[in-house]
Design goal:
The structure holds two protein chains of two kinds.
Chain A: H1 3-22, H2 33-38, H3 43-75, H4 81-103, H5 105-111, H6 115-119, H7 122-133, H8 138-168, H9 178-192
Helix pairs in contact in A: 1-8, 3-4, 3-7, 3-8, 4-5, 4-7, 7-8, 8-9
Chain B: H1 3-30, H2 37-45, H3 59-68, H4 80-91, E1 101-105, H5 126-131, H6 148-152, E2 158-161, E3 164-167, H7 177-181, E4 187-191, E5 196-198, H8 206-212, H9 222-226, E6 232-233, E7 240-241, H10 251-255, E8 261-263
Antiparallel strand pairs in B: 1-4, 2-3, 5-8, 6-7
Helix pairs in contact in B: 2-3, 2-4
Classes of the chains: A mainly alpha, B alpha+beta.
């Protein structure tokens, strides 16, 4: 393996680790908190949501990168980024939903409920904009998106596991439900703070 | 201020929107899924309680199964005959009538009737109580009366009164949610048209039953002797009704010394013997 490609592999691993742990989309960047609270009641549904997000994020990163570099930049309309990306993501989610319903009914049954939720998920928009702002190439952008989505899955499944156990505990009445979940999420965020500085650029 | 600065972005976004819209329109045609319209129609006549008594995940799943031919047209236990008839109409099949079921609590041991073997002050649900040394009552078959069935019932049709679960026969739809919820299996599904039922499950010998409860079946076989229709027998320490033979004359109900046989009041005119 040449030094250049070895460097490439190391770079990809670093981007993945950075997106999953150091800059976790939920616990460090605080994007996509809505599904983090809403769909983290059971590990099973949390995993489903994580898979759906991974799927959509990777596709969205691909399409938005192409839109930015082949439509917006050449025409000098970079400021339309937010609008254009939302348009792309919303259409993409719709398209994916239709495609899944036809091609894989089983996958559609398990992901179907969560797909529409992702349309307005700011984490998806966030990762596409970060990709552009960081000046990533197409491949790197997709790797970053997949890493971010894996970080999302990790955080939401961890929280779901904790919440499942908390259901059994004797939580004070006024703290039950979202209150204790938000406190838990806060503590998890503090724990994830420990990953800061793991990767130095 | 150039007018084109406003028009051009609008055009670009409009063009993108148009392209995505066309792709979506194409996709909705290309990937459209053919749905059997009968599913929708069957779903409309179902009660929509999503109770799961049919064994499917809900009314939608049951409707799909009926149309696929996996479930029978009278599979909806809650909707009973009227729903089965409508479903059968849509499917073009005959519905079998007359096998509606209704929940019945096979215990008469209210507070004081059945002896306690210990005090219980733990979690107020039957599952927890029955996990502690088989419950706090001396009879191992008795209703614990802590209301797991009451909480499970989607139709407000079963209530604990005086330490004993009682079914409201007017409200019970026969969904079987209480049967599944009861950790003691005290609740049974019996034919809704049955005239009588034995409110005890204790199969122990009569003496042992008497020792723990004043309202149990003590295997005296008086009901068996009183019955002219060969409809009630005491095969294994417990009176058992044959619903296909019982005519509801009520002889066994009157004869029972512990009053463990319940008469539902739908008494048929007693046919004189030999008539």
């Amino acid at each position: 393996m040449s030094i250049a490609s070895a460097n490439g592999v190391v770079k990809i691993i670093l981007i993945l680790l950075n997106a999953i742990l150091c800059n976790n989309v939920l616990l460090v960047q605080f994007q996509g908190i809505c599904p983090f609270m809403g769909v983290s009641r059971k590990v099973e549904t949390a995993t489903g949501m994580g898979l759906a997000v991974t799927f959509v994020m990777a596709l969205a990163a691909l399409v938005t990168w192409l839109v930015q570099h082949f439509i917006l930049d050449p025409l000098g309309f970079g400021y339309l980024q937010t609008l254009a990306f939302i348009l792309v993501i919303a259409s993409l989610v719709q398209f994916v939903e239709m495609f899944l319903q036809k091609s894989s009914p089983t996958l559609y049954q398990s992901l179907g409920v969560y797909l529409p939720l992702i349309t307005t998920n700011c984490a998806v928009l966030g990762v596409t904009i970060i990709n552009i702002n960081s000046g990533y190439g197409l491949g790197t952008a997709i790797v970053n998106a997949v890493g971010t989505a894996l970080g999302f899955t990790l955080a939401i499944v961890l929280l779901a596991g904790i919440r499942e156990r908390m259901e059994l505990g004797n939580t004070p009445k006024h703290l039950r439900g979202f209150s204790i979940s938000l406190i838990t999420a806060g503590l998890m965020a503090i724990a994830f703070l420990g990953f800061t500085g793991l990767i130095t650029k | 201020m150039n007018v084109m600065d406003i028009v051009l972005p609008g055009l670009i976004l409009g063009a993108m929107g148009l392209v995505f819209g066309l792709v979506l329109a194409f996709a909705s045609k290309r990937f459209s899924v053919q749905k059997d319209e009968r599913v929708e129609r069957v779903r409309e006549v179902l009660p929509g309680a999503n109770c799961g008594a049919c064994g499917y995940a809900g009314c939608d799943a049951f409707a799909e199964a009926v149309v696929k031919g996996e479930a029978s047209v009278n599979g909806c236990t809650v909707g009973k005959a009227p729903v089965a008839k409508k479903v059968a109409e849509i499917m073009g099949k005959e519905a079998n009538e007359g096998d509606d079921k209704i929940a019945f609590v096979r215990c008469h041991g209210a507070l004081g009737d059945v002896k306690a073997k210990s005090a219980y002050s733990g979690l107020a649900n039957c599952q927890a109580a029955s996990d502690v040394n088989g419950g706090n009552l001396a009879c191992r078959f008795a209703c614990l009366g802590l209301g797991d069935c009451e909480r499970a019932c989607p139709f407000d049709a079963i209530h604990v009164k005086n330490g004993l679960a009682v079914v409201d026969r007017g409200k019970c739809t026969g969904c079987g949610a209480c049967v599944a919820a009861c950790p003691r299996s005290v609740i049974d599904m019996i034919p809704a048209k049955g005239y009588i039922a034995v409110a005890c499950r204790n199969t122990d010998p009569g003496k042992a039953v008497r020792a723990v409860c004043s309202r149990g079946c003590i295997d005296c076989k008086i009901c068996e002797k009183k019955c002219q229709y060969d409809a009630i027998h005491v095969p294994a320490g417990l009176a058992t009704v044959s619903y296909d033979k019982c005519v509801g004359c009520g002889a066994c109900v009157e004869g029972c010394p512990t009053k463990v046989i319940v008469d539902f009041g739908g008494k048929a005119e007693a046919v004189p013997a030999g008539a």
